[in-house]
Write a structure and sequence with these properties.
alpha/beta; 9 helices; globular
Length: 258
């Protein structure tokens, strides 16, 4: 599991902590207790229509949090950013993974930074602003572009995770189609991550507000694991821990016999 810390004041999921370091440390400790495997810290809202966050503000939000939780929690930290300047500052502060929701398409310097610092990277396909043809075909094409940048920048592919971008530029039905066809993406032979937690498509299907999407999220997490997803990005770690553990026991036979 990847646990989310939104260091913003306008998160779509209603959990933004606006750079409050003590609150972030408390949340990180809870994640660790709940069995989260990696913590993802972001300082810029990615919700549709959000005002772009200046790089200086994004850095000021995330760097103190990364520094604080890296000294308090024994978990790897991911920095959710599209900018090399933010990523570099976060890596200097203790982050070991970069999570780029643009798949290296926003900042041409980010791929070189990832290669030079030898850190892990999550590369997401973002459908916003792109012409739609076929859900899986479009995602595969996006992955191919990102992986081509990896090759040209000498990014170590053993450190790459791919994300199909659930909720980024897709309709509700297209998001559901992504879930139905996740098993078609495993041909990439790289680990896959997905973030469905509290997303608006769940709310649309269920007619549920953000705080009422826990069970809908659980359904998508269960399905994603069954379809071969390796990492699930979540907000509600204590509840999703049991969902992930039980699903893994069924699908991957990782539970000890009892």
């Amino acid at each position: 599991m990847m646990g989310v810390i939104n260091a913003t004041d306008d998160s779509f999921s209603g959990d933004g902590i606006a750079g409050q370091v003590n609150e972030a440390v408390t949340l990180a400790k809870r994640f660790q207790a709940d069995g989260v495997d990696i913590i993802d810290v972001g300082g810029a809202s990615s919700r549709p229509g959000a005002t772009p966050t200046p790089i200086s503000i994004e850095k000021s939000r995330v760097v103190p949090i990364v520094e604080a939780i890296s000294s308090e929690v024994d978990l790897p930290i991911s920095i959710d950013t599209t900018w090399a300047e933010v990523a570099e500052a976060a890596v200097d502060a203790g982050a070991t993974v970069v999570n780029d929701i643009s798949g290296f398409l926003t900042d041409p310097d980010l791929s070189s930074l990832v290669a030079d610092r030898n850190v892990g990277v999550v590369l997401m396909h973002n459908q916003r602003g792109r012409e739609y043809r076929d859900v899986i075909g479009d995602i595969d094409a996006g992955f191919a572009t990102s992986l081509s940048i990896c090759a040209s920048s000498n990014v170590d592919l053993s450190q790459v995770i791919l994300d199909p971008g659930f909720g980024f530029g897709w309709s509700v039905e297209q998001n559901l189609e992504i879930l139905r066809r996740l098993n078609e993406l495993t041909s990439q032979e790289l680990p896959l991550l997905i973030g469905t937690s509290r997303k608006s498509s769940i709310g649309t299907v269920l007619g549920a507000n953000v705080e009422e999407r826990l069970f809908g999220t659980a359904a998508t997490v269960t399905h994603a694991i069954c379809a071969g997803i390796d990492v699930v990005r979540v907000h509600d770690s204590s509840q999703m821990r049991d969902v992930v553990k039980m699903t893994d026991a069924i699908v991957r036979r990782e539970a000890s016999a009892s």
